[in-house]
Amino acid sequence: MTATTAPSEAPEQTAPLPGPETRAERIRRRLVPGGAAVLAGVLLYLSFAPRELWWLAPFAFAVLGFVLHGRRPKSGFGLGLLMGLGYFLPLLSWTGVDVGPLPWIALAVAETLFVGLTGLGIAFVSRLPAWPVWAAGVWIAGEAARARFPFEGFPWGKVAFSQPSGLFLPLASLGGTPLLGFAVVLCGFGLADVVRRLKADPRARDRALVASAALTVAPVVAGAAAMPLVATGAENGTATVAVIQGNVPRMGLDFNAQRRAVLDHHVRETLRLAADVKAGKAKQPDLVLWPENSSDIDPYANADAYEVIDKAAKAIKAPVSVGAVVTGKDGKPRNRQILWDPRTGPGATYDKRHLQPFGEYMPYRSFFRVFSSDVDRAGMFEPGTKPAVFDMAGTGIGPVTCYEAAFDDVVRDQVREGAEILSVPSNNATFERSQMTYQQLAIDRVRAVEHGRAVMVPVTSGVSAVIRPDGSIAQRTGMFTAESLVADVPKRTSLTPATRAGVWPEVVLVLAGAAGVGWVIARRRAKAAG
């Protein structure tokens, strides 16, 4: 017999060791995530007014979530900063009109720091099961913080304010701006997780992928399901409301130099409307709303201002809410709404409670003067202390003065105080033809749905508007024109779930973010102890 030899064993196959990273690869590894973070910020900015691109916001968070997932907290902070710059620099560009780029850039950078810290938190929780839920909670926690600190906060640019229309908007009536923002962010992060899992394994059909897909779709379904709950009809009849836009003699900060001209413009437009009513060309209004700063001459102290306002009220034969700058008994100025009766003259008042820092007052004036002499152009206004609803010919009107509309508590307080209709008197002449007026109009539209109230927007120079309780615009003016809007407006008395819940939806969502952070810390401690 012939001996046979066993076949030799095949040599073991081993994966080649990765070669040294090239300079191009190193640059790409660093630049691509940063560029994607900036893109996320730009996409979020583009979702805001004057564009009606609400659907871009979830995609912005999909990009952000994809970039932040699995990152170290330090990297999350840096990427968050880049996202914030791509977001806030263009969004807040209107703050630099007439005062130069320094205040604009300073404000954008300050807000960006909050986004950086939020990015850190999102990266920290991004390895948890169902991480989009905890990450969305972290985002809402970041918004809650910057809505309160520093200088009473700056909630402008909350994600909810990118949604004055679209599928998510009805959620505002259930949980206010926190729930609306949470839904948008959760949808985006859920989409990021779906893409991440499919990228790792295109054939994946595991439970985690299904869960991520569910988190993506659930906010959209919830918004659609809540749509029938959005308030529309009148509950206490209607009121015929006139919104007066008198226009200003010039744009920019110097419009104040012609304070009497601004007052005269609003008197003139009111008298013109009164003539149209008398001629049968316009319907007799039950009440009339003037904008913020329509009389920067104190009518209590100046007889001529008192006289012309009283003349306008008598001519239109209806109570007028007048936006005036007045001097209080303590000698400090107030940004005040005055209920002016055509028979009895000035009566009830509402003083603006959330004043605009660096505009209506200047924190640390001597310190900031080192950087710019423009700080001395800021006012020294004293804030109001309580809500007030005007009884205007039997209709409860809740004034929310301009910048205050961005603050959840102020609007909610006026509705709880008994406002059947909300009024947001504003002055945007300072910001010329920038996007500021459109961003604010979007905020007002979200507030209408949140509280189930029609919102009137009398503005000095545009865009003034009549907003229905469902957030749609019934009438609007152009910019820097003298116009009047007259509309039959539904009066509503019921409270939405969001109004009743108050701050609690925000508390719950912030706690969700905090719970995610706590879970990561607990896991790390358990791992270290084990």
**Low-pLDDT windows of residues:** 1-13
- Total number of β-strand segments? 12
CATH architecture verdict of the largest domain:
4-Layer Sandwich
Largest sheet: 6 strands, mixed
Strand-residue fraction? 5-15%
Number of helices: 14
How far the N terminus sits from the C terminus, by CA atoms, comes to 63 Å
CATH class of the largest domain: Alpha Beta
Mean pLDDT: 91
| Helix/strand order, N-terminal first | HHHHHHHEHEHEEEHEEHEHEEEEHH
- State the domain count: 2
CATH T-level topology of the largest domain: Nitrilase/N-carbamoyl-D-aminoacid amidohydrolase
Helix percentage range:
40-55%
Order the strands across the largest sheet as they lie in space. 5-4-3-2-1-12
CATH homologous superfamily heading of the largest domain:
Carbon-nitrogen hydrolase
Q: Which shape, going by the Cα principal axes?
A: globular
- Radius of gyration using CA atoms only: 27 Å
Based on helices, strands and strand pairing, what is the structural class? alpha/beta
Descriptive account of the structure:
By secondary structure, the chain is α/β, with parallel strands linked by helices. It folds into two domains: 30-230 and 504-529; 238-362 and 372-493, Nitrilase/N-carbamoyl-D-aminoacid amidohydrolase, CATH 3.60.110.10. Helix content is 45%, strand content 12%. The chain is built from 14 helices and twelve strands. It has helices spanning 23-46, 56-68, 73-91, 101-125, 131-146, 172-200, 207-226, 259-278, 303-316, 365-368, 408-416, 436-451, 497-501, 504-529, and strands spanning 238-245, 287-289, 320-327, 333-341, 345-351, 390-392, 395-399, 421-423, 455-457, 465-467, 473-476, 483-490. The strands form two sheets. A six-stranded mixed β-sheet has the order 5-4-3-2-1-12, with helices on one face. A six-stranded mixed β-sheet has the order 6-7-8-9-10-11, with helices on one face. Helix 2 (56-68) packs across helix 6 (172-200) and helix 6 packs across helix 12 (436-451). The longest helix is centred in the middle third of the chain and has 29 residues, at 172-200. The relative contact order is 0.12. Residues 1-13 have low confidence and may be disordered.
